[in-house]
Amino acid sequence: MTKTTALLRAASYLTAALLLLLLCTPLASLAFHRPPPPGTVSRTATATGPPTYRLEPGFIPASPDAPIYDTLTVDRRRAANLPTALPPTIPYYGERTVYLTFDDGPDPDITPAILRVLRQAGVPATFFVVGLQAEKFPAILRQLHRDGHAIGNHSYNHSYRELYRSPAAYTSQLRRTDDILVKHLGFRPRISRAPGGSAGSFTAGYWSALADEGYREVGWNINSGDASRAKAAQIAATVFEQLDTREFLWSHAIVLMHDGRGHEETVRALPAIIKYFQDRGFEFRVVNLETPPAW
Q1: pTM reported for the whole predicted model
Q2: 187-244 per-position pLDDT tens digit
Q3: For the residues 87-104, what does the mean pLDDT come to?
Q4: What is Dmax (Cα atoms) for the chain?
Q5: CA distances from 151 to 11, 104, 164, 280 (A)
Q6: Which residues have a catalytic role annotated?
Q7: Structural domains of the chain sorted by starting position, each given as residue range(s) with its CATH number in brackets
Q8: Which H/E stretch holds residue 126?
Q9: C-alpha distances in angstroms, 198 versus 154, 158, 172, 228, 242?
């Protein structure tokens, strides 16, 4: 498929998706996840959204489409003499499964715009939030949770120079963001994503530290290219081209996008990207402990 063909198809998808969104009413009442069966987790009601689930020793996630959270931080687990490392899990591979993920938010303009598109389309996503941004915009953070999306940890300040000085410096930022999320939500995620990705930044010491403190690193296998100056049609075409040439990823397509400041084109591209997956019968899921490794 030529780049011109991909761009033309992306433009047609973008137009069709925007028309569909204009005609459809918001689907705010849709539930994006089901609670696990009784007896597998301890349910904890929160004032900000759906129940959260406290990981117990030996717990294995039961629902492949539900976000999993922990009411205890790493320090609190250690103080209570509870395990910090995660139990083994069985990866969930569907026939056509997609995980829409967004990094670098929450942003006061971009994140709410993305939430509106997701709400109208009736699909869930996963937001890897930066602690500094969550501190500034806790109301948007809470809205992410109320809308049923999954939340992940994307460090405190996204500074490569500080994060990649050592494994201890890296996990210290994760714990700092955890504290912010517990303060505003009552829980923390057990999934994290390294700014810039783990490749070229992580040594064996980083992987060991993450395993010891119980974080599941989440990569991606489809890069939308929205971190560049690409326009909406180009962003959508980039996603389409990768899906068309890598059908082996359809069982666990993890799409990297961004909801940080300046990503208006991502908002414009999103309806077409969602429509592409919907037209092909993909299931939209949130990242949790059963999400397979990207590669």
Answers
A1: 0.85
A2: 999 999 999 999 999 999 999 999 999 999 999 999 999 999 899 999 999 999 999 9
A3: 94
A4: 59
A5: 30, 12, 23, 26
A6: 103, 258
A7: 3-25+88-284 (3.20.20.370)
A8: strand 126-129
A9: 12, 13, 16, 20, 21
